[in-house]
Structure formats: C-alpha cells, structure tokens
C-alpha cells in the first residue's frame, strides 16, 4: 500500500501525463495552456479508478508502478513536463514504451539550445551547398513530393526544436498546410504546432544564430 507521499508523487506524474497526452493526441478539443493542465482526470480518485480497472481479480497494474517510478524520479512539475515532452515529441505516447534515453538527449538539447540550433543550421547549409539550392527551397512543395524541411525533420537530421524555431521566424507551416494534403505532413504539422507553446525562445537571438551560419561563405 502506498503512503501519502507516494500517492502524491504518483498522482503528480499521472495527472501531468494525462494533460500532455490530451494536448498532443486530442488536438481538436484540448489545449494544455488553455485549461492549465486540468481535465476530468484532475483528482486522485480518477487516478485510482484508472489503476483499479487493471487490478481487478488480483491483477497487477503496471501503470501504477510506471507512474510511481516517474513521480519518484522527476519530483517537480518542470522535470515531469520535460520528461513527457521528450517522449511525445518522439511519437511515444504509451507509458509502457517510455524511453529514459530520450529524456537525456532532450535535456542535452535544452541545456545547449543555441548550439543545437547552430548545428542544425549547419546541416541545412550543407544541403543548400550540396544541391546549389536557396534557403526558401527547403520549404517548397513540389506536387505531392514532401518538402525538404519535412524530410530533414523526420530523419532527425535537424531537431524538432529547430523546425519549430524556423516556423516562429517564417510561419512556413501554415503555408505548407494550405498546399500539401498529405497524412505524414499533417501529423508532423500538428506536432510542431502542439510543441511550440512549450518552447521559451528568444526569437531575435535565434534568428541571428541562423543568419550567421547561412550567410557564412
């Protein structure tokens, strides 16, 4: 039986997951920031009902253990959000498949955000030089072909953070939305739009970093 501290930390992990899961998977009817992370799940009773469904007839609830472990590992709200963002931005929404290595990589990028943006812009510059292309070309849609920015993002050649920053600067996502009717792009577009509000970015600083790399001969 869990003591009160265990219940509270498990609940914090569970309720934060529920809110972020709704934000990233129920994009038409839930916004984490609009509802301040609250919903029908916002009580310990709701959590217990969810776990008990799996514990009937003496069965073991793996989710209870997963969220207990997460709550004990990430003891403040920011750390919990970062952990879940590291999963959701990699398409992992089900707790059984959570990967702690993704969190380590995510924190590394967050702690070295400027360097990550610069490194990714260098990848873009290499592409432009290799194919003698213009910067705007990576956002262009040619018929049913995927734009280069999507290929770079999905292949992890550049990070989702860099794609999001570029959209903050250029607003290219909306333009592609209006041009390309494609399920792969649709999912990636939704991911960018859902993720951007979680990023606290000095846009002018990032613009200078990007321009400095692109303008270098």
Account of the protein in words:
The chain is mainly α and 217 residues long. It folds into two domains: 4-111, no CATH class; 113-215, Bacteriophage T4, Gp59, helicase assembly protein, C-terminal domain (Annexin V, domain 1, Orthogonal Bundle), CATH 1.10.220. Helices cover 65% and strands 0% of the residues. The chain has eleven helices and no strands. The protein has helices spanning 4-25, 44-55, 62-73, 77-88, 100-111, 113-130, 148-154, 160-170, 172-179, 183-195, 203-215. α1 packs across α4, α4 crosses α5 (100-111) and α6 (113-130) runs parallel beside α11 (203-215). The relative contact order is 0.09.
The percent range for strand residues is under 5%
Summarize the amount of helix as a percent range.
Answer: 55-70%
- The poorly predicted ranges are none
Q: Major beta sheet, specifics?
A: none
In terms of structural class, how would the helical and strand content be classed?
Answer: mainly alpha
Shape, principal axes of CA atoms? elongated
Q: What brief labels describe this structure?
A:
217 residues; Annexin V, domain 1; 11 helices; 65% helix; elongated
């Amino acid at each position: 039986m869990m003591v009160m501290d265990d219940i509270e930390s498990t609940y914090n992990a569970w309720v934060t997951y529920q809110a972020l899961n709704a934000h990233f998977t129920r994009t038409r009817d839930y916004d984490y920031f609009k509802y301040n992370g609250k919903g029908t799940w916002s009580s310990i009773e709701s959590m217990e009902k969810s776990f008990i469904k799996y514990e009937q007839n003496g069965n073991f609830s793996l989710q209870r253990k997963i969220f207990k472990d997460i709550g004990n590992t990430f003891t403040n709200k920011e750390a919990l959000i970062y952990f879940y963002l590291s999963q959701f931005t990699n398409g992992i929404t089900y707790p059984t498949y959570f990967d702690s290595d993704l969190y380590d990589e995510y924190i590394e990028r967050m702690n070295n955000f400027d360097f990550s943006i610069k490194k990714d812009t260098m990848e873009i510059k290499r592409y432009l030089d290799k194919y003698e292309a213009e910067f705007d070309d990576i956002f262009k849609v040619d018929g049913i072909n995927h734009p280069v920015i999507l290929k770079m993002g999905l292949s992890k050649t550049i990070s989702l953070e860099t794609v999001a920053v570029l959209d903050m600067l250029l607003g290219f996502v909306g333009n592609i939305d209006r041009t390309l009717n494609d399920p792969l792009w649709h999912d990636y577009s939704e991911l960018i739009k859902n993720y951007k509000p979680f990023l606290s970015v000095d846009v002018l600083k990032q613009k200078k970093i990007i321009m400095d790399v692109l303008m270098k001969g």
